[in-house]
User: Which sequence fits this backbone?
């Protein structure tokens, strides 16, 4: 999927997920569609102004202050 399709999916019912593997951090939608690290960083950056899509961290990580899923703020 391209960036536009991923953004559209997140506007729907999809969730951005972060998993940690031996090779590093991996991002995907909850249906398994991969999301590039660059796009994930753009989508989850609290300092980046995004007029088209705002994702809210779920604060659901193992430790406080870490999150593993993000949902569209709507």
Assistant:
């Amino acid at each position: 999927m391209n960036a536009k399709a991923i953004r559209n999916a997140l506007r729907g019912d999809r969730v951005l997920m972060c998993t940690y593997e031996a090779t590093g951090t991996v991002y995907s939608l909850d249906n398994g569609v991969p999301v590039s690290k660059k796009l994930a960083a753009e989508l989850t950056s609290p300092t980046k102004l995004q007029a088209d899509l705002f994702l809210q961290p779920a604060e659901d990580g193992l430790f406080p202050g870490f999150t593993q899923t993000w949902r569209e703020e709507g």
